[in-house]
Amino acid sequence: ACWKTYLGRSAADWFRLVGLGILGGAMRESRPEEALPALEASLALMRRYFSHKDERIMAVQGNIAGCLHGLKRHDEVLVLTREMYASRAATLGVSHERTILSG
To answer: Do residues 38 and 26 make contact, with C-beta atoms less than 8 angstroms apart?
Structure first.
């Protein structure tokens, strides 16, 4: 329902993007094969229109990692987790709590 509410809005609309992320996040555990395309689309739009929202991008990446884990694609999970750690280390520093928890 959340996604359909904002479907008619532009791809750059924040609420549409959040709705897409909520859809993917909600299905991540129970239906990861269906959630993954929604989350990948959400990440692509986030990077294109809201690249300054680093924490939000990393939250979507975390959801994608959860989907990949559910699909037993562990090599991809590792790559994504390393990207998230490197991004946090670059923006927050290696001793920051969020960086440590993401590693």
So the answer is: no
> What SS3 class is residue 71?
coil
The predicted structure's pLDDT at residue 3: 59
Q: Is the Cβ–Cβ distance between 58 and 84 less than 8 Å?
A: yes
Helix (H, G, I), strand (E, B) or coil at 46: helix
Instruction: Give dist(CA 25, CA 99) in Å, integer.
Output: 22
Radius of gyration of the chain (CA): 14
The vertex-13 CA angle with 91 and 24, nearest 5°, equals 70
Of 41, 17, 37, the C-alpha closest to 28 is: 37
Q: Which pLDDT band holds residue 48 (cuts at 50, 70, 90)?
A: very high
Integer Cα distance of 57 and 71 in angstroms: 21
Identify the CA nearest to 16 among candidates 37, 35, 42, 44: 42
Whole-Å CA distances, 97 to 52, 79, 83, 94: 21, 21, 17, 8
